[in-house]
Amino acid sequence: MQPRTSQIATQVAAMAMSFAVGLLLGPRLCAPPPAEIEAPAPCPKAQTRIVERCPEEPPPAPTKPAPAKPVKPSRARPVKSDPHLPASPPPTSAEDRQRLLAWARDQSISLQGCTRDPGITYRLSVTLTLDESRSINDVSLNAGPDALNESLRRCLETRIADWTLPDDLAPAHRRLVFGLTL
Fold first, then answer.
1. What CATH number corresponds to the domain at position 134?
2. For residue 99, what are the domain limits?
3. Predicted pLDDT of residue 146
4. CB count, 10 Å around CB of 166?
5. Cα Rg for the chain, rounded, in angstroms?
6. Using one digit for the tens of pLDDT, what is the confidence trace for 26-60?
7. What percentage of the chain reaches a pLDDT higher than 70?
């Protein structure tokens, strides 16, 4: 609907609802009061009462306090300490980071062989998990709102898992995360 037509339709609906409410509630709210209203009954006069007996006095307070229980000395509970975390690896230097990103960019040429829909740009977050020998152990793709079909996802994961790190690159962490645009 166009905005002007929508506005007119809303106004007509509001007017129709106000007429309906007036027709339903009008006779009740605008009707004259009934003629046969009885006068309220007169209130009875208050009677005075005489109290013949006073209330009992409260018992006297005990003068001797009760003996206190002996207090045991409290012992502080030992504070539980959290287990120590393993030492984190040193941060990746800016130069190594640039070299890793350049390596990923160069390797992404191998992903061109995966068939995908023409005209669609895919933005991926790739997480690589490395094992002790620096080979790729696990590949995780996150495509965000751009859904990958299953065959394209399998093709990309298989081709990325075949990548090998060059010997001169030594990442400090076992997980590498980077973005790709295909």
1. 3.30.1150
2. 94-181
3. 57
4. 11
5. 43
6. 777 777 766 776 777 787 777 777 767 766 777 77
7. 90
